[in-house]
Amino acid sequence: MNISIELSLLIGTLLLAFSIVFSKAGYRFGVPTLLMFLIAGMLFGTDGAGIEFDNVHTAQTMGMIALCIILFTGGMDTRMSDIRPVLGPGLMLSTVGVLLTTLLTGVFAFWLSGWEHRSGIGFTLLTSLLLAATMSSTDSASVFNILRSRRIGLRHHLGPMLELESGSNDPMAYLLTIILIQCLGPSGINPTDIALSFILQFAVGIAAGFLLGKGAVWTINRLRLVNAELYSILVLCFIFIIYSSATLLQGNGYLAVYLAGIVIGNSRTVKRQETTRFLNGITWLMQVVMFVMLGLLVNPADMLRTALFAVPVSLFMMLVGRPLSVWISLIPFGRRIQARSKILISWVGLRGAAPILFATYPVVAGIPGATEIFNIVFFVTLMSLIFQGMSLTAVARALHLTDDDAQAPDHFGVEIPDDIGSTLEQIEVTPAMLADGAAIRHLSLPPGQLVMLVSRSGSYLVPNGDTTLHPGDILLLISTSELEKP
C-alpha cells in the first residue's frame, strides 16, 4: 500500500503532538517526560496502533543527529566556573566509571546467560561485554532534562558533576561499543589496535572540539549578518561540521561536539541568547523525535520475552554495577566527596535514548544476538527511567542534598545581552531587610546595583527610590560584573 507524503506527514505530526500532550499527563505523576515519549512510541508501534517502523539504519542516523545536538547544547549550557571544582571526579566517572560498569555488568550478564536457561539467551563473554558497553553511560538527555526541568538544586556541586559526567561519558560508551563490535567481527582486532584506537579517538576528539570550537567563535564574532536568525543556523551547521570532521579524522565525534559546545558556551559570541533559545527548541524537537522513533522501533512482545534476563541485569546495574564503579572511580578524591553524595551519584545512573541508540550498532553490524541486545537494553532503559528517574528528587531529599535556594523559579523572564557587562539577580524581601525603612532607598545595596522590577502577588512594579516594599516582594536586581573573556 502506497502512502502519500501528505498522509505520512499528518501521521507523523499527530504522533509528535500526541506524545507532547501525553508527556504532560505523566509529568503530573512525577514520570520523566522522556519516558512518556518512549511509551508513546510503543503505543503507536506494531503491537499498539499498528505503525510499522523497523528501519534500524534510519533510526541510527536520526539518533546520531539528535545526540550531536543534545550534547552540543548541553555543553553550551555548562559553565566552566561550575564544573571546574568537579572536573577531576566528573572525568573519572565518565571514563573509568564507564569502563568499570562495562566490565562488572558484562561479567554478570555472561554468568547469568549461562545460568538462566529459561530466557533462551546464551551470550559469549565478548557479547556480554558488548551488551554492557551499549548501556554503560548515563544518558545526557535524561539527566539534563530531569535536573533542569524540575529545578532540582543539589549541594556540593553535584548538579554540575552529574551533568559533566552524563555529557562526557557517551563518547566512552560509544568507543567501547565500536571496539567490541570489531572484536566480534570476522577479522577481529588485536590489543595494540585497541590501544591505538583509544588514543586516536580521544586525542583527535579533544583537539577537534577545542580548535574547531575556537574557530567557530572567531567566525561568528567577525561576521556581520543582516538577519540575526542566521547566527543560530550557522551554529547548527558548526555542530555537524565539527562532528563530521572529527569522525573523518578517526576521532570521537561525540566528544568533539560536546567540548565545542563548552568552548562556545563559555565565550562571548554575537546573538548568543537568540542562539541558545533556538538550540533549546531544536534540542527538545530532537529528543521527542528520537525517543518516539526508538519507541516505534521496539516490539514490546519481543522485549518482554527477554524480561527474565533483563530484570536481573537492570537490578545489578542499579544496585551493584553502577554503585561499585562510582565508589571505585572516586577513590582518588578521598574525603572530598561525602558518602551520601556518592550514594546519590550512584542512583543517578539514568539510562535513556543514548544506550538504545548504541544498541542499534550491533544490529546494523549483524552481530549474533544483536536483536536480543537491543531488546534487553530497551527493557533496562525503561526500568531505569521508571525507578531511578521517578525517585531522583525523593532520594536527593532523603540524603539532604537538595538546595532549596537553587530551586527558586524565575519570576521575571528577563534577559540582557552578555556584552553589556551586567548580570541579573532576583531576591525575596525579608522583614530584616526593611529594618531601616520600607522604601527602596533604605536598602543596603552594594555600589553599582539597582532594583529594576518588583514582583508582588503576580503583578509587576517599575520602582523608584520612594517605592514602598513589603515582605515577600521579589526584586530583580541588575549589577555590573566581570564577564569571562573568550
Q: Explain this structure to me?
A:
This protein is mostly helical and 486 residues long. 63% of the residues lie in helices and 5% in strands. It is built from 18 helices and four strands. The chain has helices at 5-28, 33-44, 56-76, 80-83, 87-115, 125-134, 140-149, 158-168, 170-184, 191-222, 229-248, 253-265, 272-297, 300-305, 307-329, 339-347, 353-365, 370-398, and strands at residues 422-428, 449-456, 459-461, 474-480. The chain has a four-stranded antiparallel β-sheet with strand order 1-4-2-3, with no helix packed on it. A hairpin with a 2-residue loop joins strand 2 (449-456) and strand 3. It is globular. Residues 482-486 have low confidence and may be disordered.
Q: Report the average pLDDT across residues.
A: 84
SS elements, strand count: 4
Taking all Cα atoms into account, the compactness measure Rg is: 24 Å
Provide the β-strand percentage band: 5-15%
Q: Output the strand order for the largest sheet.
A: 1-4-2-3
Helix percentage range:
55-70%
The end-to-end distance, rounded to whole angstroms, is 56 Å
Q: What is the helix/strand order? A: HHHHHHHHHHHHHHHHHHEEEE
Q: Poorly predicted ranges (pLDDT <50, ≥5 residues)?
A: 482-486
Supply database-style keywords.
single chain, 486 residues, mainly alpha, 4-stranded antiparallel β-sheet, 18 helices, 63% helix, 5% strand, globular, disordered C terminus
